[in-house]
Design goal:
This protein has 137 residues and is α+β, with helices and mostly antiparallel strands. 18% of the residues lie in helices and 34% in strands. Belongs to the UPF0225 family.
């Protein structure tokens, strides 16, 4: 996802389900990655954590997990946009033994009360040993 932004929302309650859709509380799922306590083991987990970062308004995490050659100088998240659900549609590579991977997903959002969705096929690579978002295909 390439919507621009910095932190603009309060973090979800620690026991709230993670916005990425995995069956774990935010604090134990993407919250650990956002706080820098863990790194995404796969490209899909990085993509899920980036969706969650959009959902909670964590622009710093988004910039930190963006490849330096494609990363914008700053990010301005739209406070009128609320990311509400993620569907992972397809993935290639991106595992613990890979250096590249792709994830195709559909992100659902609300903008001023109106539902919308965004489809993207994203490319991820390992950079300095960590998965980072390279860009949309």
């Amino acid at each position: 996802m390439s919507r621009r932004g910095s932190r603009s929302r309060a973090l979800p309650a620690l026991t709230t389900s993670c916005p990425c859709g995995l069956p774990a509380p935010y604090r134990d799922c993407c919250g650990r990655l956002h706080r820098g306590e863990a790194a995404a083991a796969t490209a899909e987990l990085l993509m899920r954590s980036r969706f969650s970062a959009f959902a909670v308004g964590d622009g710093e995490y988004l910039l930190r997990t963006w490849h330096p050659t494609t990363r914008p100088p700053r990010l301005d998240l739209d406070p009128a946009l609320r990311w509400v659900r993620l569907e992972v549609l397809e993935r290639t590579g991106g595992g613990v033994i890979h250096t590249e991977g792709t994830v195709r997903f559909r992100a659902h959002y609300l903008e001023r009360g109106k539902a919308g969705e965004m489809d993207e096929h994203s490319r991820f690579v390992r950079h300095d040993g960590a998965w980072v978002y390279l860009g949309a295909m």
